């Protein structure tokens, strides 16, 4: 099943933008090739060329030395190239076995039984717990990836492309994914691993290619040097700001004995006191209760019991609406930026006008334009006041969201502040958030990135199936311990400690 | 009412629901592929008029039915071309076509209005027709009524038990995923829209050559049925058997309106004529209860096994539209 992949001078432009400006890359079979680059570096375009989604303007693809004509995904499948997309391209309302079969050539009958047996066999081989008769929409993102990988194997993929596969999956799932990829590579599978996360590439890949602005900036082999990779990615060195300890001030939000219920989940007796200037990270597998709690802190979910007080104002906010919370200086930034936080179709400038409120019936165009220019410069947003918000990249949308926050704020609640962003944007976003902290705001955020939780939080709450840990000092945690807690291990110890304290 | 009368009435019900079934199954196939064909109301009128004219002119029932299917396919082709190739709003195009086809049928149908044409004869099945109860109920119908029953089962088999049917559901649910798996999304959408249109087009001749034989222009009593077809497609959850149940329910409600009228002399006749429509809406509401938040919440308080069983029932009842319904797809 060995296939050597060679890309020769791949060029692709979208309008005036050169997404790929003559990229050549050789990937030997049986290896895991990392493709690194910041958002918009051309990684996805290059992979879509290889998997038939995009036809390049020029350039050739050679598989095992022979020119391959890949003009559609169907051609790619025939050539043995399979791609796992960032958002799994599967069918949520279907049963796993139907999703598994869909698209595989064959006769009129789908032969569900043999397909289900095959799915169970492959799942067993890699230690995946997938029930062929279950529904896809009941799976986590990680499990959907597993299903998709098995499907690609089944239809005969010999080259496997993974586009940002570690976004949105848990740590144990990531470890399982990496083990699977290593096993496949050892059997001769050629794996292309696209990521903007250095640590993933360093942990997994046999070699790495770095793209920058549509060009191949360089290649590297292990042992990788993070500094060298970062400077290849950005053309300059980027440094993490040193962690600074803030003296916590007065209490901003006090949650006492909060119980929350959703159809799937029940959180009981959660107490938390957030002090001004403090950053609190909420960790846990997706759907463990952290999002429910964060929503409740913004008045978006009503507690069944317990109370929320914004104590600086001496305000009992229990059961009040989101609008009341907002007036009291609480801001909420949801993870679904384009769906829940921004208005697609409106321009960046119009967003600022909306957020500022202002008086009178008519928009003061001059003042609005000035405001937009100022904020765009202050937050380093790559866009113009008249750019529509959905045209911005994810990193710039997140910057815009931060720029839209009014001041002063007492509490900022953020869901996945840097999901899908490259390291430079991540550092920038956190720089801005930390500025807010220095000005006295507190931050409570959710992240599935353990390093982010440990790097930026002062205290951490771990959620597991609706159970919340007492606040843990971030300095006392490391990735292994936090990962264990997220997976439900080591709870006796922390709860025992809390009981004694 | 004696048993015999009841059976005759029920047999009539099966026959009068047949055109609805053809239209609803046709629309279901089209919508499952992701294309919403809103032209149904006008299209049925046009194909009823057109097939009657053709059958009258040629004296051939077969030619009439073929003409009906062709008109349905043609109108669907316009929706497909506008929606798939030109990327226009399927809703807007379908709506305009619904109005255009209706007026066209009244205008073009003037010459044949009120004429007596051929009529589809009953086709009792030998031996089986002699059976007690089942004979008069099921086996003394006409050809299209038999076909309507086969169509429901056939559509179900195709959609849920075959490989092409799985791909058909895939292109309506998430075309980009189907495309990634090698399906020719645009070509298949054309195919199923036109096929669905042709099947739905047969509803016209079933009315004008059988159930309500003849063409009487705007008093044919066919105007409005196309909109009911669209709502039954939704009520049917894009599933053939449920859709068929919806058709029979509507036919039953209409029939009840006729039967009850003499028994309730005090009631204005309009009430019973209109009653099937709000009743359909009510049923739709009841069937989709499982989606309501308070139902989910009260479910959560039940003990494990009971909750699982109940939520499975609610899930089966739930009608979720094909996710990509009405949206264009661009390969690339």
What does this protein look like?
The complex is a heterodimer of chains A (501) and B (332). Chain A is built from 18 helices and 21 strands. Chain A is α/β, with parallel strands linked by helices and 501 residues long. Chain A has 3 domains: 5-234, Rossmann fold, CATH 3.40.50.300; 251-329 and 408-500, P-loop containing nucleotide triphosphate hydrolases (Rossmann fold, 3-Layer(aba) Sandwich); 341-405, no CATH class. In chain A, strands 13, 16, 17, 18, 19, 20 and 21 form a 7-stranded mixed β-sheet that branches. The mean pLDDT of chain A is 86. By secondary structure, chain B is an all-alpha fold. Chain B has a single domain, classed as ABC transporter involved in vitamin B12 uptake, BtuC (Orthogonal Bundle). Chain B is built from 16 helices and no strands. Chain B has helices at residues 3-32, 40-58, 61-85, 90-108, 134-138, 143-161, 163-173, 175-180, 185-201, 203-211, 225-235, 240-260, 269-274, 276-287, 293-300, 304-317. In chain B, helix 2 packs antiparallel against helix 3. The N and C termini of chain B lie far apart (64 Å). Classes of the chains: A alpha/beta (501), B mainly alpha (332). The A-B interface holds A 51, 53-55, 72-74, 77, 83, 85, 89-94, 98, 101-110, 261, 263-264 and B 161-164, 166-167, 169-170, 173-174, 176-184, 293, 296-297, 299-300, 320, 323, 331-332.
Main features:
heterodimer, A: about 500 residues, alpha/beta, Rossmann fold, 3 domains, seven-stranded mixed beta sheet, six-stranded mixed beta sheet, 21 strands, B: about 325 residues, mainly alpha, ABC transporter involved in vitamin B12 uptake, BtuC, 16 helices, about 70% helix, globular
Number of helix segments of chain B?
16
Distance between the termini of chain B: 64 Å
| Highest-level CATH class of chain B | Mainly Alpha
Task: Note the beta-strand portion of chain B.
Answer: under 5%
The average pLDDT of chain B is 89
Calculate Rg of chain B over CA atoms. Answer: 21 Å
């Amino acid at each position: 099943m060995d296939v050597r992949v060679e890309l020769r001078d791949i060029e692709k432009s979208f309008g005036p933008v050169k997404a790929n400006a003559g990229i050549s890359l050789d990937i030997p079979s049986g290896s895991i090739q990392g493709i690194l680059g910041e958002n918009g570096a051309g990684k996805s375009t290059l992979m879509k060329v290889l998997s038939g989604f995009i036809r390049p303007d020029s350039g050739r693809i050679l598989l095992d030395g022979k020119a391959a004509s890949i003009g559609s995904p169907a051609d790619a499948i025939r050539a043995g190239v399979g791609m796992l997309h960032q958002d799994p391209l599967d069918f949520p309302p279907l049963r796993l076995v139907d999703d598994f079969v869909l698209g595989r050539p064959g006769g009129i009958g789908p032969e569900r039984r043999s397909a289900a047996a095959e799915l169970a066999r492959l799942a067993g081989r890699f230690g995946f717990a997938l029930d062929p008769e279950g529904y896809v929409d009941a799976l986590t993102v990680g499990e959907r990836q597993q299903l998709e990988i098995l499907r690609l194997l089944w239809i005969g993929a010999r080259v496997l492309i993974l586009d940002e596969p570690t976004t949105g999956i848990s740590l144990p799932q990531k470890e399982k994914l990496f083990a699977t990829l290593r096993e496949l590579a050892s059997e001769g599978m050629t794996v292309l691993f696209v990521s903007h996360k250095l640590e993933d590439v360093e942990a997994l890949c046999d070699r790495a290619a770095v793209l920058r602005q549509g060009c191949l900036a360089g290649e590297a082999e292990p042992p990788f040097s993070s500094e060298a990779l970062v400077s290849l990615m950005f053309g300059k060195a980027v440094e993490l700001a040193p962690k600074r300890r803030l003296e916590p001030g007065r209490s901003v939000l006090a949650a006492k004995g909060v119980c929350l219920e959703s159809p799937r989940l029940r959180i009981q007796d959660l107490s938390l006191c957030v002090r001004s200037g403090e950053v609190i990270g909420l960790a846990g597998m997706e759907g463990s209760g952290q999002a429910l709690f964060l929503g409740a802190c913004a008045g978006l979910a009503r507690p069944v019991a317990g109370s929320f007080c914004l104590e600086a104002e001496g305000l009992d906010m229990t059961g009040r609406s989101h609008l009341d919370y907002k007036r009291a200086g609480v801001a909420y930034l949801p993870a679904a930026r384009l769906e829940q936080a921004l208005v697609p179709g409106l321009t960046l400038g119009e967003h600022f006008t909306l957020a500022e409120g202002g008086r009178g019936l008519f928009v003061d165009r001059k003042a609005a334009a000035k405001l937009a220019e100022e904020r765009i410069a202050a937050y380093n947003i790559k866009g113009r006041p008249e750019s529509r918000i959905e045209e911005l990249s994810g990193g710039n949308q997140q910057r815009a969201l931060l720029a839209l926050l009014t001041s002063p704020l007492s509490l900022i609640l953020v869901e996945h502040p840097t999901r899908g962003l490259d390291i430079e944007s991540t550092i920038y976003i956190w720089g801005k958030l930390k500025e807010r902290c220095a000005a006295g705001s507190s931050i409570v955020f959710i992240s599935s990135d353990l390093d982010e939780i440990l790097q930026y939080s002062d205290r951490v709450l771990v959620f597991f199936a609706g159970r919340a840990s007492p606040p843990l000092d971030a300095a006392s945690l490391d990735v292994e311990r936090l990962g264990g807690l997220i997976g439900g291990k080591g709870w006796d110890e922390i709860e025992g400690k809390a009981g004694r304290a | 009412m004696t048993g015999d009368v009841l059976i005759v009435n029920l047999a009539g019900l099966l026959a009068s629901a047949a055109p609805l079934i053809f239209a609803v199954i046709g629309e279901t196939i089209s919508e499952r592929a992701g294309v919403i064909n809103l032209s149904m109301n006008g299209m049925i009128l046009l194909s009823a008029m057109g097939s009657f004219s053709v059958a009258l002119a040629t004296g051939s029932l077969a030619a009439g039915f073929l003409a009906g299917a062709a008109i349905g396919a043609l109108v669907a082709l316009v929706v497909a071309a506008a929606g798939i190739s030109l990327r226009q709003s399927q809703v807007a195009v379908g709506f305009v076509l619904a109005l255009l086809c209706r007026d066209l049928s009244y205008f073009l149908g003037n010459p044949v209005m009120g004429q007596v044409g051929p009529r589809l004869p009953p086709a009792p099945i030998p031996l089986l027709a002699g059976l007690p109860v089942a004979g008069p109920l099921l086996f003394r119908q006409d050809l299209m009524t038999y076909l309507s029953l086969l169509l429901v089962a056939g559509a179900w088999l195709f959609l849920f038990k075959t490989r092409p049917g799985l791909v058909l559901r895939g292109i309506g649910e998430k075309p980009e995923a189907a495309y990634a798996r090698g399906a020719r999304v645009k070509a298949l959408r054309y195919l199923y829209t036109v096929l669905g249109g042709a099947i739905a087009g047969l509803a016209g001749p079933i009315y004008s050559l059988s159930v309500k034989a003849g063409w009487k222009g705007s008093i044919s009593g066919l105007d409005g049925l196309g909109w009911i077809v669209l709502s039954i497609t939704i009520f049917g959850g894009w599933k053939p058997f449920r859709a068929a149940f919806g058709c029979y329910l509507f036919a039953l409600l209409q029939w009840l309106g006729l039967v009850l009228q003499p028994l309730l002399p005090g009631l204005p006749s309009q009430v019973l004529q209109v009653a099937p429509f709000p009743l359909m809406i009510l049923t739709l509401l009841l069937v989709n209860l499982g989606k309501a938040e308070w139902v989910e919440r009260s479910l959560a308080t039940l003990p494990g096994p009971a909750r699982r069983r109940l939520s499975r029932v609610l899930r089966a009842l739930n009608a979720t539209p094909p996710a990509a319904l009405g949206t264009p797809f661009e390969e690339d």
